[in-house]
Protein: Methylenetetrahydrofolate reductase
Amino acid sequence: MAADHSGPVPFSVEFFPPRDADAEARLWRAVRIFERMNPAFVSMTYGAGGSTRDRTVRIAGELATETTLLTIAHLTAVNHSVDELRALVGAYADKGIVNLLALRGDPPGDPLGDWTAHPDGVEYASELVDLIGGLGDFHTGVASFPEGHHRAPDLDADTENLVRKLRAGAEYSVTQVFFDVEDYLRLRDRVVAADPEQGAKPIIPGLMPITSLAGARRMTELSGSRIPADVEERLARAAGDGPEENREAVRAVGIDLCTETSERLIAEGAPCLHFCSLNFAKATSEVLDRIGVDTRGAFTPV
Structure:
């Protein structure tokens, strides 16, 4: 994030592992477009319960070895023993990946369901951070939750958990996607108040340009987060009252909202903007262009 970048702030991009050949081709089209915009890093998510484990490891390795992109691989504790987790960290290391995002992860099938640790695994993300730290010279990040994790009894408990992960050795956190900047700012304040040393570590805001109101509602439902009332109102007006939402109008408002959020975060000193791309480049690139990132030529094949 301290390296040279175009625009007022570094940015990064999140990809997810594709499920078939067509989706993989789409992913690589987006990868090559973003590569020409010089992101600070890209991350590859991890399928629930390891459902896309082999593909995730392979593609993360290809991102690291076949592009100029700094690659961060997500790693979750779901359905994995400690030995399996060690093997996965080793598989990433073999591909030159030393940046990992350590997540406890959600139960497969029902992200809001009851969490059950693997009998030979770990219970908490802080334990996963500690495990990674004992395996070599890795750089580890964790997740943070501006609205509080849905399993936390309150914001204080959620903050304590984040601080615990940072104390275990995590160097930064990336937030869950949010739509209210105040939630991010209050999270930052809480961590500083709880532990100034850990509060000095970067909290990278997670953003997503909304291109479908139904899709955004579904995402927040599954993640236990929310769409603020004023944002919902703007999107609902754009969607209209017909049987099908006006996707073009919703997309236009979604780009506006993400741009406004990005500009506010830049003004508030966010260290980086992390975009959930859904393996598409166009919507995120429009936001980046509006905030002053040089996207010229990014869509022109080299």
In short: The chain has a mean pLDDT of 93.
